[in-house]
């Protein structure tokens, strides 16, 4: 993707500022690099990457690039392992984030007449408060529920006539199943679902859309780079537009770090163009995607990345074969009778790896026949033998946040 002149100008400005902060994160990171010598996109692409390990080492506020007097809020990554990543925000950062989030809602056709039901968590996590800020800037009605308490969620959804649901795909599925179980579908007024935080397969997408009777939109973001709201799919469901006046994106080979040709899958790398509190230069997200060429039929003049296919750290290796969750979802997508929900258990017994794939089966589907088909298709497409186990709809756990689908018990 060719860098635009205004992006290069903003990056140069960021680099000058960040390397002039005594003892600052990037002054140390870029020690020995002549910033003035960066005159082209190719020069910029020679700068070292940043990654989450760097951010953890900077705990708690080593990333901060402005005085304390300018910091109005902090957020932290939602990860449950390792040292937390703390991201400080200025007043302008908060405003910029709200601008991007409003843009996301408008891209999904949300207006100030909508009632937006927000289920992602509040607090140190960036999700809930980001969704709310965008709603309020748009002028729509925010219903700031947060996660959990499904009884109250559904009561508010019915009584307040919520028209837009913001959720993880796991919680959207849980709510859809509960609405169907209680037989209250005719009391639900939802029209749109804005889904983020975790990747989800096409089968799960179709199921949620059908059960809720909504059109679904993907929203993208990460705490290190504002939070959700830096990218959004449109009505045409052909990837996600990202706001290139606030972020610059590259896609690199996860192993070599080299830029891959446009259209090829690689790891998304983000540089913030305007962020003040904690700017990031060439930050490796671990998210796997590709640039989508050409103009979008929706008319938006913003570039697109494809819907995420997974993460570099999601990959598992079983019997010498690299497997991504997206591959499992693609296998199940093409098998009649297999639902969207699955869970993988990997064990090491008697000197060999055993991969058990639990799959929920549609009502009326014969379990033994389904298991036989899954075993054959998985062996054919992925290249290894597995132990398939068909279970009933609802037997696998549901989550109000992100679902854990792969459990590796070998280590």
From TrEMBL:
<dbReference type="InterPro" id="IPR042099">
    <property type="entry name" value="ANL_N_sf"/>
</dbReference>
<dbReference type="InterPro" id="IPR051414">
    <property type="entry name" value="Adenylate-forming_Reductase"/>
</dbReference>
<dbReference type="GO" id="GO:0010124">
    <property type="term" value="P:phenylacetate catabolic process"/>
</dbReference>
<keyword id="KW-0436">Ligase</keyword>
<keyword id="KW-0597">Phosphoprotein</keyword>
<dbReference type="GO" id="GO:0000166">
    <property type="term" value="F:nucleotide binding"/>
</dbReference>
<comment type="similarity">
    <text>Belongs to the phenylacetyl-CoA ligase family.</text>
</comment>
<dbReference type="GO" id="GO:0047475">
    <property type="term" value="F:phenylacetate-CoA ligase activity"/>
</dbReference>
<dbReference type="InterPro" id="IPR000873">
    <property type="entry name" value="AMP-dep_synth/lig_dom"/>
</dbReference>
<protein>
    <recommendedName>
        <fullName>Phenylacetate-coenzyme A ligase</fullName>
        <ecNumber>6.2.1.30</ecNumber>
    </recommendedName>
</protein>
<feature type="domain" description="AMP-dependent synthetase/ligase">
    <location>
        <begin position="66"/>
        <end position="271"/>
    </location>
</feature>
<dbReference type="Pfam" id="PF14535">
    <property type="entry name" value="AMP-binding_C_2"/>
</dbReference>
<feature type="domain" description="AMP-dependent ligase C-terminal">
    <location>
        <begin position="320"/>
        <end position="410"/>
    </location>
</feature>
<comment type="subunit">
    <text>Monomer.</text>
</comment>
<dbReference type="InterPro" id="IPR028154">
    <property type="entry name" value="AMP-dep_Lig_C"/>
</dbReference>
<dbReference type="InterPro" id="IPR045851">
    <property type="entry name" value="AMP-bd_C_sf"/>
</dbReference>
<dbReference type="InterPro" id="IPR011880">
    <property type="entry name" value="PA_CoA_ligase"/>
</dbReference>
<comment type="pathway">
    <text>Aromatic compound metabolism; phenylacetate degradation.</text>
</comment>
<dbReference type="Pfam" id="PF00501">
    <property type="entry name" value="AMP-binding"/>
</dbReference>
<keyword id="KW-0596">Phosphopantetheine</keyword>
<keyword id="KW-0547">Nucleotide-binding</keyword>
């Amino acid at each position: 993707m060719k860098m635009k002149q205004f992006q290069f100008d903003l990056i140069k400005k960021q680099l000058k500022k960040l390397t002039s902060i005594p003892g600052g994160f990037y002054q140390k990171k870029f020690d020995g690099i002549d910033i003035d010598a960066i005159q082209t996109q190719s020069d910029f692409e020679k700068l070292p990457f940043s990654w989450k390990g760097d951010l953890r080492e900077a705990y708690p506020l080593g990333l901060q690039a402005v005085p304390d007097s300018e910091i109005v809020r902090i957020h932290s990554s939602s990860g449950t392992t390792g040292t937390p990543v703390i991201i400080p925000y200025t007043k302008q950062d908060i405003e910029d984030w709200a601008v991007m989030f409003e843009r996301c809602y408008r891209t999904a056709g949300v207006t100030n007449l909508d009632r937006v039901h927000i289920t992602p968590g509040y607090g140190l996590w960036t999700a809930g408060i980001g969704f709310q800020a965008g709603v309020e800037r748009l002028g729509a009605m925010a219903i700031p529920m947060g996660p959990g308490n499904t009884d109250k969620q559904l009561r508010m959804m019915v009584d307040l006539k919520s028209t837009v649901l913001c959720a993880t795909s796991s919680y959207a599925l849980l709510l859809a199943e509960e609405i169907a179980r209680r037989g209250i579908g005719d009391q639900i007024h939802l029209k749109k679902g804005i889904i983020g935080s975790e990747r989800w397969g096409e089968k799960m997408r179709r199921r949620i859309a059908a059960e809720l009777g909504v059109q679904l939109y993907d929203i993208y973001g990460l705490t290190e780079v504002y939070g959700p709201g830096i990218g959004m799919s449109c009505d045409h469901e052909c990837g996600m537009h990202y706001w290139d006046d606030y972020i610059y994106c590259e896609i690199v080979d996860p192993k070599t770090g080299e830029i891959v040709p446009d259209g090829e899958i690689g790891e998304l790398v983000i540089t913030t163009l305007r962020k003040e509190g904690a700017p990031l230069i060439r930050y490796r997200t671990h998210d796997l995607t590709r640039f989508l060429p050409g103009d979008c039929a929706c008319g938006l003049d913003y570039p697109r990345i494809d819907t995420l296919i997974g993460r570099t750290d999601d990959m598992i290796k079983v019997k010498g074969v690299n497997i991504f969750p997206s591959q499992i979802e693609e296998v199940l997508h093409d098998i009649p009778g297999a639902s969207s929900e699955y869970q993988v258990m990997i064990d090491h017994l008697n000197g060999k790896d055993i991969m058990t794939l639990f799959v929920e089966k549609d009502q009326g589907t014969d379990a033994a026949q389904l298991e036989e088909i899954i075993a054959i298709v998985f062996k054919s497409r992925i290249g290894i033998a597995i132990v398939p186990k068909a279970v009933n709809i609802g037997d696998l756990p549901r989550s109000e946040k992100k679902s854990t689908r792969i459990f590796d018990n070998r280590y």
